[in-house]
Write a structure and sequence with these properties.
mainly alpha; single chain
């Protein structure tokens, strides 16, 4: 049991809190179609990486590194011209 509420809330230097705030901002900004949401997602991942390094979780570090790379890739693809779409057009049915 932590010695105090402060120790309980900030035992990881507030990295977990920062990561959570950045992730919530990311979800909100992407939900309203703002590309800076990817920056917030990457910042959240960086905070989670630092958190997982302190917690000694290799899986957490690797997973959040991949998420950060994906966020930066998504940011770079935001305005990229789209090639062919994967949409399928069904033929109109004719009623005889």
């Amino acid at each position: 049991m932590p010695q105090s509420v402060h120790d309980f809330l900030f035992s990881y230097y507030g990295l977990d809190w920062a990561a959570a705030v950045f992730m919530f901002l990311s979800m909100y900004r992407l939900g309203i179609h703002k590309k800076d949401g990817f920056i917030f997602a990457a910042l959240a991942s960086v905070c989670w990486i630092a958190f997982n390094l302190i917690a000694q979780s290799a899986a957490g570090v690797i997973a959040n590194f991949i998420i950060a790379v994906m966020a930066f890739r998504s940011l770079s693809q935001w305005n990229a011209p789209r090639g062919e779409t994967n949409e399928v057009t069904l033929p109109a049915s004719s009623e005889d």
